[in-house]
Amino acid sequence: MSPYVAVLLGGRSNEREVSLVTGLAVEKALIESGYRVKSIDVGENLLGLLNSLNPKPDVVFNALHGRYGEDGCIQGLLNYLDIRYTHSGVLASAMAFNKPVAKSIMAAAGIKVAEHHIVTYDELLDGNVMSRPYVLKPLNEGSSVGVLIVQENDSFKLKKGEWAFGDKVMVERFIPGRELTVTVMGDRPLAVTEVRTGRSFYDYDAKYIDGGSTHIIPADIPESIYKEALRVSLLAHESLECRGLSRVDIRYDGKNLYVLEINTQPGMTPTSLVPEQAAYLNISFNELVIWLVENATCDS
Predict the structure, then answer these.
(1) Could you count the other beta carbons within 10 Å of the beta carbon of residue 265?
(2) Do the domains spanning 4-86 and 95-112+176-290 agree at the CATH topology level?
(3) Is residue 251 annotated as a catalytic residue, yes or no?
(4) pLDDT over 60 at 156, yes or no
């Protein structure tokens, strides 16, 4: 009998819609590849989720994005149930999802990261906490949700009630330059893509709206920089003890590479970077999904 895979999708984070698209694409690939598949839209009812995982699947494909699906929460539950699942485990997921923690670990490994400060929301309301330009980021969100760039000469001032992402804010030095990204598949960095967009940065809409960005693969950068981007991406993946797939986002200022963050549950939508890089190396979407399932494990 073919293996039974449960695909967890949807969820209740700000990235629910992206997760639904990812999950349905994964479901289709698994069915085409001969697996028995059940897709489960993960809501707030934990008992309902536990019932949906009975009978126990051979593997869970974790297609959730954002809070509860990408931050170690669902990974802990699956560990407790002793069910193998795709992507990173509890610790790696939690560390990577917390931007300041991830940056401190990567910096300790010798990776260049942008200077940042953690401030309270009230401190932010009082005025500039860093010389402009800088970037405001939630500590725990993905897909550029909540990210704001404060330019040198704009009139931006955050008003009370405009920040919906907790009492603490990461204020990060804005790195001018080019946006690069690298997929790591197990112990192999795949390729370097340059992302270009007409927007102020590679935000949520640029990532997921058709035509929101242009992907240049391979990135047209010096060979030495290309190889260094692959190296630091694998180092970031390994320093955080990630497994399965990750995607590392980098800023190149013409001289140095700065790792902005690492995504342990990268999107698998029609406009996503990971399947595109795999295809560049002649790895089909179905092959990518099967590899994730075959390499699934858990921490227990």
Answers:
(1) 28
(2) no
(3) no
(4) yes
- Residue of 178, 243, 247, 251 marked active site: 247
Give the residue from 46, 60, 71 showing the smallest Cα distance to 8: 60
Candidate list 70, 71, 194, 249, residue with the active-site label: 249
pLDDT interval class at 14 (50, 70, 90): confident
Respond yes or no: is residue 284 known to be catalytic.
Answer: no
Catalytic residue among 14, 39, 88, 143: 143
From the list 27, 261, 272, 276, the catalytic residue is 261
CATH topology of domain 95-112+176-290: D-amino Acid Aminotransferase; Chain A, domain 1 (3.30.470)
Q: Is 246 among the residues known to form the active site?
A: no
Structure confidence by residue, pLDDT tens digits, 77-130:
999 999 999 999 999 999 999 999 999 999 999 999 999 989 887 777 777 678
Domain boundaries of the chain, sorted by first residue? 4-86, 95-112+176-290, 116-173
Give the closest residue to 192 by CA, choosing from 226, 144, 169, 143.
Answer: 226
Task: Respond yes or no: is residue 70 known to be catalytic.
Answer: no
Across the beta sheet with 59-62, what order do the strands follow?
36-41, 4-9, 59-62, 84-85
Which residue did the predictor score with more confidence, 136 or 192?
192
Q: Is 286 a catalytic residue?
A: no
* Burial zone of 252 (CB within 10 Å; 0-12 exposed, 13-18 middle, 19+ buried): buried
The verdict on whether 261 is a catalytic residue reads: yes
Does the structure show a pLDDT above 90 at 43? no
15 a catalytic residue: yes
- CATH top-level class of 4-86: alpha beta
Q: Give catalytic status of residue 177 as yes or no.
A: no
Banded pLDDT at 15 (limits 50, 70, 90): confident
